[in-house]
Amino acid sequence: MTSFHKNLAERILVIDGAMGTMIQAYPLEEADFRGERFADHSHPLKGNNDLLSLTRPDIIQTIHEAYLQAGADLLETNTFNANSISQADYALEPLTYELNFESARLARAACESQGRGWVAGVLGPTNRTASLSPDVNRPGYRNVTFDELADTYEEACRGLLDGGVDLLLVETIFDTLNAKAALFAIERFFEARGQRIPVMISVTITDASGRTLSGQTVEAFWHSIRHVSPVSVGMNCALGAEEMRPWLQNLARIADCPVSAHPNAGLPNALGGYDERPEDMAESIKEWAEEGLLNLVGGCCGTGPDHIRAIAEAVQGVVPRTIPTPEKRCRLSGLEPLTFRPELNFVNVGERTNVTGSARFRKLIKAGDYETALSVARQQVEGGAQIIDVNMDEGLLDAKEAMVTFLNLIASEPEISRVPIMIDSSRFEVIEAGLKCIQGKGIINSISLKEGEDVFLSQARLAKRLGAAVVV
Questions:
Q1: CB 224 within 8 A of CB 176
Q2: Which of 147, 257, 309, 414 could form a disulfide with 70 if both were Cys (CB 3.0 to 4.6 A apart)?
């Protein structure tokens, strides 16, 4: 990957455009998705674009080659939904490895046929959210867990690397907890395999508020995932170029790594299509480049080879963004960021959500009155707590279950979850379970050397992998 890093330092690299948009241009029917292999499958398969890597690989490779010919440097694999959670909609969960392997192989073959390009193995967000309940009447309920996400992402990673990708791309992130599960899985896979490749990360800002679907601001998101030292961080989907610009400016200001963007071709029209012409999109992106916001750029929904060709021409010769060197600070987040600065003098930690520190809170938790217990957390934040400490260590409680239940409920309360969470327990398994419930960058309180160096280092490594700060 020496050539990739060298090129990334010297010029703005071009990412390809939308796979779905190109697939929709083909008059495909159910039979195309089924092929011979899935002719008798029990579920409808039309619309399962990832499956075309197995049943119509000719189409997928042709699309890849068209993007390379248009000037793309990076090809994204056709694996946006190639995970067991998304494939469950089609009763094709066992195909996770094969879909990723074959899709990576097709993109690699396209690069070889054109004599250029790198392959980015795509890990999409799945169709579930680990931070929020799908049932408004049960705010603490989740239809997917961190560990379930991590397991399917790890299987996808195995297929992508075996298929020959150069990078991994965790993209279209609408819930940072899903992304943290993907990044956890990637790190676990890299360690087991004894091999590392660069990791790109791309979030999607869903509206003019500048937040993700799960409520995080751009800066809070960056604080949550920067522990993996990605080769790039960026934005894609949801917004057109003009609408994305202010949030991209924010990210470009704070990220100490290359920044990417691949916006939609404008906002969707009344029929769900995208109308922004290649030349108009390229004009906006050229302004971004000249403003010093970009290191990588491409297109998302509604874009095709004509858009990528126009974008590649627009950024050709423009100097890539200079990567800033931020001050060293402790940077935490809930839905919103918290940076420790000298002018703060001290940071206020609310400890009334601690069963060992508040008799009232302990009684509420032991009685199962989590709704009133949430009001204690809310009062802490309203009273000026910049962090809230949650501890469930009480002899008659299942501390792990209580921690997970309370943190899941906090996630449904934006006025509470806007601040970082300090997870406090004498049992590390409780801390680990808590960290797998929060999308922000929280704090572990605490780890120590009382059990020896080996245990300390194991806990410290897991803390980093889960994206937490630590009190030692």
A1: yes
A2: 309
